[in-house]
Amino acid sequence: MYNLVLLAARPPEWTHEQFITWWRGDHAELTYRLPGLRAWRHTDIDTALEPRSEGWDGISVLGFDSPEDLKKALASPEWAAAVAQVGDMKGRRIAVMGHEAEMFAA
After folding, report:
1. Start and end of every EthD domain (predicted)?
2. Cα(55)–Cα(93) distance, integer angstroms
């Protein structure tokens, strides 16, 4: 699996709950349509382990079969629509991509 991992913080004028509801609702409707999307996990961050980790609201891990499939998704009209929906929202994000390795499964 090749993943796009997004760590995001809400706009300053939104509550955490508003942001998660939007992310898992209106924004999710666009995300589900991404071509080649094989899996999507979302974590609602409710507690930071330590002070340097504070200030984030959620993590999305979007899984694709290959880097090429992710590149196609990022070039798609569906991705453009998701980006347009975010618009000039003044939240923060970190976006990284890479190969997944399962390290443990119970």
Report:
1. 12-84
2. 11
Nearest to 63 by CA among 29, 102, 15: 102
pTM recorded for the entire structure: 0.92
How many angstroms separate the CA atoms of 29 and 14, rounded? Answer: 20
Strand order in the sheet with 58-64: 39-44, 58-64, 2-9, 92-99
> Largest Cα–Cα distance of the chain, in whole Å?
42
98, 62 contact by CB (below 8 A): no
Nearest to 6 by CA among 98, 93, 84: 93
* Residue 62 contacts residue 3 (beta carbons within 8 Å): yes
Q: What is the pLDDT along the chain (106 residues), one digit of tens a residue?
A: 999 999 999 999 999 999 999 999 999 999 999 999 999 999 999 999 999 999 999 999 999 999 999 999 999 999 999 999 988 788 899 999 999 999 999 9
